[in-house]
Response regulator (Agromyces mariniharenae), 129 residues
Amino acid sequence: MAGRRILVVEDNPLNLKLVRDVLTAFEYEVVEAHTGEEGVELAGTCSPDLVLMDLQLPGIDGYEALRLLRQDPRLGSVPVVAVTAFAMKEDRERTAREGFDGYLGKPISVRALPGQVSEFLSNGRNDAP
């Protein structure tokens, strides 16, 4: 799956650097956005294969950004994964209910991340045909 484009929407510079460094080491192309608005705009122009979306962002949050992404027909088959420090069962259930295709808890596991991304890319959208 190397060479696939991953859009990472994350406002924390340390978290963004960690994800970028790990994914680029596994030959993924990483596109970075720091706000929900920027993530939505970039998703429409960079044709990502996967979006990793922080939920707590300045401006619009990850849930609103997801709603906007789902309205764009060009992005219909792109899986969007919630990335959050909220690790309660209810939080995971809400992300699924809101339409996220997966969930990654923070802190991000450097060891597990490449396999998790590969799995999300293989599985695609939950509602894809």
